[in-house]
Design brief:
Layout (H helix, E strand, L loop, with lengths): L1 E4 L8 H15 L4 H11 L6 H12 L5 H15 L6 H10 L3 E6 L3 H10 L8 E4 H4 L7 H9 L10 E5 L2 H11 L2 E5 L13 E3 L2 H9 L8
Helix pairs in contact: 1-2, 1-4, 2-3, 3-4, 4-6
């Protein structure tokens, strides 16, 4: 079995890291709950425009930074606070121990995404890392998944033996469908409100992987 896994909010707690950092920054300047809400809204769980988020931070927190400097500032804050989800590392090891091949397939900059992987100690638990900035293509474009499959030596594998696992329906699930793979959506308590429900829906990554792996006899607990 081949496993393609998103990084942010799938393997690592990116949204939580940003929220914790933003809360601290608002407190430092004596800001309001409205300031924090505006910042979190602009972040869009990591999917929003980085420049737009930077402008909100500059406005709400009174920073003297320009937009590029503000982007680097909040990226550093995320990187400092990011952590893997509980049980994710052991799940990756179990998948690989059962003969599976695992790749991280992530949108983002090379420095930021590889920095998260290094900080969370994930590099030794996967077989490949594919980052959109390095490849010049981003999810939901299925070419990023094709690159990952090629890196895993699985370009010609039956796509029913491939899982794309992630928290973003518009990026991860859409990319998996376009590439013809099976899809698992990490809901974090949300409801799937679109058509074509993914093959697996679960509240956590660990549960999504367990459900996807169970027909093949892989036990993650």
């Amino acid at each position: 079995m081949i496993w393609l896994l998103d990084l942010d909010n799938t393997l690592v707690r990116r949204a939580e890291a940003f929220a914790s950092w933003a809360t601290g920054e608002v407190e430092v300047v004596g800001g309001s709950t409205g300031d924090l809400a505006a910042i979190l809204t602009a972040d869009e769980g990591g999917h929003g425009s980085k420049a737009a988020l930077a402008r909100v931070l500059i406005d709400r927190l009174g920073w003297d930074d320009d937009v590029p400097a503000a982007i680097e500032r909040f990226r550093a804050g995320i990187l400092e606070g990011v952590r893997p989800y509980d049980g994710v590392v052991s799940s990756l090891d179990a998948l690989r121990g059962a003969g599976g091949r695992v790749a991280v397939v992530t949108n983002g900059t090379s420095a930021q995404q590889r920095g998260k992987i290094a900080r969370c100690g994930l590099g030794d638990h996967v077989d490949a890392v594919v980052v959109s900035e390095e490849e010049g293509v981003a999810k939901p474009d299925p070419r990023l998944l094709e690159i990952a499959l090629d890196r895993l030596g699985a370009a010609d594998v039956d796509r029913q033996q491939v899982w794309m696992v992630g928290d973003a329906g518009h990026a991860d699930v859409a990319a998996g469908r376009a590439a013809g793979t099976r899809t698992a959506w990490v809901s974090h308590g949300r409801s799937w409100d679109g058509p074509d429900r993914p093959d697996v829906v679960a509240p956590t990554t660990r549960e999504a992987l367990a459900l996807a792996a169970s027909p093949s006899g892989v036990v993650l607990d």
